[in-house]
Specification:
The complex is a heterodimer of chains A (418) and B (430). Chain A is mainly alpha-helical. In chain A, 73% of the residues lie in helices and 0% in strands. Chain A has one domain: Na+/H+ antiporter like fold, CATH 1.20.1530. Chain B has 20 helices and no strands. The chains are: A mainly alpha (418), B mainly alpha (430).
Amino acid sequence: MQTTLAAIAVITVGYIFAYLIFDRLRDRYGYVGGAEYVIIGFLLGPQVTGLLNAGQVQDLTPIVSLALGWLGMLLGTYFRLPTVALIEGDQLRIAFAEAVATFGLSGAALVAVFRWLTGASWADAAVQAVTLAAIATLSSPVAVDAVVDRIRSRSRIPPVLQLAARIDALVAVVAFGLLLAVLHQGEVAPGVRPPTATEWAVINLAVGVASGVLFHLFLGPRGHLEQGRLFVALAGAIVVASGASYYLNLSPIYTNLVLGFILVNSGSAHRDVTRLLLSTERPVYLALLLFAGAAWSPGSLDLLFIAPLFVAVRLGARFLGGRIAGLYVAPPELRTPGLGRGLLALGGLGVAIALNYAQVYPELHPRLILSATLLSVLLFEIVASREAAAFVSGLAEGSARPPEPGDSLPPGAVPETR
Amino acid sequence: MIRRLVVLVLLVGGAVLLEPLRVPTEGVIAPRSLFLFGILLLTADTFGAVAHDLGLPRLVGYLLSGLALGPSVMGIVPPGVLQDLSMMKQLAVGMIALLAGAELRMGDLITRRRTIMWVLVLQTVLVTIAILGITLLARGTIPFLVSLDALPLLSVALLFATILSVNSPMATLALLTETRAEGPVAKTTLGIVLVADVLVILLFSVAFSVARQGLGHGQAGGEQALIGLLREVLGSVLAGVFVGAVISLYLRFVKRELVVFAVVAVFATAAAAQALHFEVLLSLLVAGFLVENVAPVRAEPLVETLHVAAVPVFVIFFAMAGAELRVQEFADLLPVVLLVVAARAVALYLAGGVGARVSGAEPAVVRHLWTGLVSQAGVALGFATIVAQRLPVVGAGLETLTVGVIAVNQTLGPILFRWGLSRAGEIRER
């Protein structure tokens, strides 16, 4: 009894301290993350108080898989074709160049780190490096939107920034999904020919497409449900799609990205679906942070140096990737070498990918990947909002001009959902 | 609706296609459980809509969907999956308890205290008499009672009667949320089932202790058992006060991310309850009540959040409850089950009518209150499980009979209550 009471006391005091610390950061830097939830999860988990033991943390898998799929689906809804079609080609080029450059630079650096600093085989190094490179490439669309909405710059760059955040997330999730398909883990039932890497990639896509089509039919032509029932239907669809992916050792985030994409481009329920997903994004993110905190343990201390190294690699790749896209790919009127500065926020998808990695590769340093991700989330989210605000404010001063139709970013239908 | 059912069939068919591609390793939560949980959610939502279209409560649809997919009928959701997902049910119960406590207004309780007390007393007395009478009369057809002598028989019958005097806060709250009912019948019913929920734990413990003594299992004295029980109830109330204080402080100083906070509060309370041996349902009920009625904070944001989360929570709870029903186990006892259900319903009709009339309640309450008292669900099932585990001779048989009665009450109760609310003109559903 005394142990339990002590555990409760530790959690309460820990939470209050974490809250006070991060509240100050909130006031001073505009911090919007949820690091206190990582801490409370850690305090609740088996490493500290044990109020949630390892088995109970595992029991939370359905909630975690739901959360992974939820974030994937939200990302899919950002790409509604009628609005994507309105985006200028230059903006798309910049966004894709920034995402691919960041992914490529961080991937190359991380392969080198894992191959030569930790002595991993090429295959293992590639798996870990691609996962962390995907996480490094991510930038949070919600955080970027919040800054752009707050500052209301008249420059043409903020829509590029918003688009880049979405394309970053798309590239990251697709790269990670392909990684799990190409280097697939697990064996098939006896007597069945194991699918090739390409076939796994197609199966992964097919699961998403089939789920999307079936759920579109499930919602029906009118597609209008009250919020509670829409939540149940969405949760059911996401859990089914996530469950199928989890079952096959594929990525539920990628599957639900496809599901969300189909859903938002078919039927009339896209507004309701997007609104619901956006309104629940924050609790889902915090739930993931809580779980990540509970599931976190330092793992091998020898490899823990990778975590700060990853932060440095991400920072470097982010700025370099932004510079390549903003300076060499952008046309003169959109030239902005500091693009990476506005894309530092990592968001929930990073934690989602790290947790998904731990489900599929439990033997390949999942704790290290989670540690690096959490450290990255904590550090970047402290500075991301302020840096993005400074970047956007600088644009407003430097390149002000009257706003034109099509300036604000259509994907995600952000204006109509707020 | 047919389209939705076709989609569900296609989803299950898709799962069969994917089966050969499965990985052989199974985690603590089997990967298949997750997929089937999704199917259960979608089916429950569909059946809920069908029930609604038929003028029945949605939760009856949720229950039936669980029953249809569960081990009793199609077996698509096997017992292992339900075991894997027990955490979800625990979360659902905790959230409902917190909401139920917060829905209980001190003012309503004070205004309706005479009716609540009268009906509670009459419900306990009349249900006990009715069930005792039926059990004694039908003992020849109940296998596990045939060989008992008079004293053990009486003690087991008393225990059975006590379990059947339990109502269902879950079903009541689910139906009130679904129908948005407001009025004297809704308020009085909620007050009675929630107060009864606290009292019945005490009554059950006394009856359980008596039954153990009567069956010769009472190595611990009755007083000792009662003290243990009082300690548990008191501990639960104290834990509820503590949790309520924490929630109030959170609402006062933080007031953000309420969904996440509510989920954490429920899980933390459940974990602490397991370690400290108190009743999580009672604790969260007390916590919700204190936050709403005593704490100097505005509880509306939390209540609104819990209301938003209520629909999925009810779907999960009732679909899983339906899946856990083992129909075939009590099929042989069906005549006795129906007899007991009928006797209990008559007793509740009398208790509700007479209690409300004596206490001077509104005519609608006199006529329709009883309909809200018929439902039974989680608490009664919990008692049945305790009986099965701790009474070696008659426990399993008594549990089967009890579960049979609960299954019928769980299905019929919400239908009756909806009908009662409708007749009383209290349904505000769009």
